[in-house]
Design goal:
Structural class of chain B: mainly alpha
Shape of chain B: rod-shaped
Number of helices of chain A: 2
Strand order of the largest sheet of chain B: 1-2
Largest sheet of chain A: none
Order of helices and strands of chain A: HH
Order of helices and strands of chain B: EEHHHHHEE
Strand content of chain A: under 5%
Radius of gyration of chain A: 30 Å
Oligomer: heterodimer
Amino acid sequence: MSLPKPVMRGLLGKRLRFHLPIAFTLSVIAAVAFKYAVTEPRKQAYADFYKQYDAMKEFSAMREAGVFESVRPSGE
Amino acid sequence: MIRTRRGKFGTCVIRDSAHVASSVPDELVHVDVLDCSVPQYNNRLDTPLPDVPFVRNLGADQKKLKEKEKGAWTSLSKEEKLALYRLSFELTYPEMKRGSGEWKTVLGGIFFFLGFTGLLVWWQRFSVFGDVPHTLSPEWVEQQTQRMLDMRVNPVHGFSTKWDYEKKQWK
């Protein structure tokens, strides 16, 4: 019957001191990973698309297909 | 006290009162009313030592055993030790914790009612719902898809990127 007295205080503080740096680091890593895996490729894809985008050509194609109400296809 | 009764479905057996095993000592089991003003025995996992022993009114042999218990316990045989245990307790911990087959009933009931609900849903489909809208017919969907491609829906990452505009077919 000579067990040491268990720790009674500072339990939350100890847990936070251990877990908060880990949580913070993992969150930062998650944010950085998302930025470089998702948003940068997406921005690049949009940039590439619009670099080669001929607006007039696309407009004429859509006009011929008949989707506009303000301009009808050139045949009519 | 066990009586028999002739009923519609043959003879059946009725007891005077239910067996209240978990809270009342053996001798009081077949009484209709529980006396809650005196300490009671209970089989509970969180109460290892109930207020009273299971068997209160000892028979002659049991009294002799209790006298022998007052001496050195090494002189007790294994059967005597077990008998003393059963005098104080009705169920052991493993007996208290034993599983039942209830899960089979629960699972069966779940499946049964899922099936019944399926039948209801099926009946609802052909008896309650009206016709499917005409905008879901294959012809309409075809014209709709063509119009979406003409409008260049989601041209960067999405719908229109799957269509080859030169060859006029899906990529």
